[in-house]
Amino acid sequence: MLLAPSILAADLADLKAALGVCERAGADLVHVDVMDGHFVPNLTFGIPVVRDLARATELPLDVHLMVTRPERLLEEYLEAGASWVTVHWEAATHLDRMAAAIRQFGAKAGVALNPATPIEVLTDILPSLDYVVLMSVNPGFAGQPFLPYVVDKARRLRERIEDRSLHVSISMDGGVDATNIAQVVAAGVDICVAGSAIFGAESPEDAARELRARAEGTAE
Prior knowledge:
alpha/beta; TIM Barrel
């Protein structure tokens, strides 16, 4: 299981400290939510922030583009230092072209599905992806409650991936915390994005370590 703390839930006035938390806690990725105020009702990080984050850490940046017409910005985010790039099925017109462009740049290509979007929409594109992000909240804001029915989506997607012998990871993003992460991983999720569960805790580093322990079944 890869742990990807979402810095949207951190102190936005001190993102360097948030990166330090990720590094000391043994995170595998740093999740960066890019929102444009159109696809989702919020504005967050832009290209200059991603560029500075990439310079400040050796952890891979998992950049989640919650934007309309992501093809307009794709190359710039890749050049800024994104190692993983996610575009939304609901926002992308030419998914195959974008997935190929991301991979050609040397980054990992992912597609996100909103909670109510069925996994069947990915049937044809699935072999061209490195991972799929299942949103377990409606995207736009940190701190929303987890939607339990997305666990079944993960289970069904994992079955489809294995039936086709594909090497595609599953990420879950939204409301993942210590109460549900074991269930999420048991459903076949490989990558857990956690924001408020880490940065909203008194000790973010301890919270991140507890999440991993619960996911791996080693928590006391």
